[in-house]
Amino acid sequence: MSSSPDIAGILDNTKELDRLRKEQEEVLVEINKMHKKLQATPEIVEKPGDISLSKLKNLYIQAKELSESEVTVSNILLTQLDSLLPSGPTGQQRRKLVAEGNEQKRKRMKVDTDVTRVSPSMRNQIEAYASLKGEQVAARVTAEDAEKDEWFVVKVIHFDRETKEVEVLDEEPGDDEEGGGQRTYKLSMSCILPFPKRNDPSSTQEFIPGKHVLAVYPGTTALYKATVISTPRKVSCFSRTISDSFQQCIRNQ
């Protein structure tokens, strides 16, 4: 008979736990809506009187408070259950398990919100870079002792979707004092410029006189800055033009 109040308290706390979890799900939905809104119209935050960022901050604060309340109620429930159960894991062990479960849940919530931050165009770009494995690309590399960036023709050997880093191999042996073996680099996506596909002539651009380009030194994988002087009537090359700021590169004819 003396255990009836404890059971009633357990039932009340389980209802409270359900309520907290439902509220967390509702807040997460609102957070995702705000992420989509800011991705679609990022300029809205610059408008006078806009409170989008403040609203998003308040939603995160609310989500944090609900998560902490869930942990508190869960610990109370564990204590109440410990008083009714004759044996088994200790209350401290159960609390540890619940805490681990809540931590995993928070991580899942973070992953869900992170996914919404990736725009469709970025997802397409990630897929495009992931498909470059085994292909040659132009890469901008900054050596530790170099005063400026250097460009090379390299081979893609791996793309990390999480870090968005491209691992490439310079297939030309180096001539340094450390043996001159092939070198690998891990570079950001912005340092990689894919070449047009060999089977897609439509992607090859014209090289008009005066165009700034990067061209490959004959017989090497090194690229250098150059300016187009003239072009033959028919050009068949595995190349890509670059803008005046040298953000795209080509291989020499």
UniProtKB/TrEMBL annotation:
<protein>
    <submittedName>
        <fullName>SGF29 tudor-like domain-containing protein</fullName>
    </submittedName>
</protein>
<dbReference type="GO" id="GO:0000124">
    <property type="term" value="C:SAGA complex"/>
</dbReference>
<dbReference type="InterPro" id="IPR037802">
    <property type="entry name" value="SGF29"/>
</dbReference>
<dbReference type="Pfam" id="PF07039">
    <property type="entry name" value="SGF29_Tudor"/>
</dbReference>
<dbReference type="InterPro" id="IPR010750">
    <property type="entry name" value="SGF29_tudor-like_dom"/>
</dbReference>
<dbReference type="InterPro" id="IPR047288">
    <property type="entry name" value="Tudor_SGF29_rpt1"/>
</dbReference>
<feature type="domain" description="SGF29 C-terminal">
    <location>
        <begin position="127"/>
        <end position="253"/>
    </location>
</feature>
<feature type="region of interest" description="Disordered">
    <location>
        <begin position="88"/>
        <end position="107"/>
    </location>
</feature>
